[in-house]
Amino acid sequence: MNSQKKSAVRIGIGGPVGAGKTSFTAAVVKELTQRFSIGVITNDIYTKEDAEALMRMQILPEERLIGVETGGCPHTAIREDASINLAAVEELQRRHDDLDLIFIESGGDNLSATFSPELADITVYMIDVAMGSDIPRKRGPAMMKSDILLVNKTDLAPYVDVDLTSMENDLKVAREDRPYFLIQAKNNLNIEKVSQAITDLAGL
Description:
By secondary structure, this protein is an alpha/beta fold. The protein is built from seven helices and seven strands, in the order E-H-E-H-E-H-H-E-E-H-E-H-E-H. The longest helix has 13 residues, at 83-95. It is globular. The mean pLDDT is 90.
């Protein structure tokens, strides 16, 4: 009899402050939780605000959520020394040995933010249109190398003078053959497509 525990696929979600990471996490978990066993880890510098927000939304039972207080720059806890997040992953898997997916939401960071391969099997990076139409041209490891790139809040484009067609042309150049999606996390636009892309990459 094989007693080895199942290992969940870990999805890292990064992006600048205000990009909509928590709203996206809520939307994608809501989309997938009917089919898969899911846990979520959130990172904040001095609080557990994002975890508490997800609890208030009642997306998952409280025991499937862990809020990590990094106490410093977010990239440190997801890249240089991921031990605090790895401990949270271990704790979630101890609580639920049937987990299929663990979403790890980083604190707000910049275009150079990347996840340690030890921590994340799949990386999702998010920007939003309010950051400006030139953001894809600024490149950066997170923009170019993440497994999935999301452009959130596309409904705001007319109000922040962003031409989505031009922005998407720049995205195609920056991403080459890597997938990207234009989304509205709060309005559930294209969340189903992103969910499918994640489960395809996870082999589920």
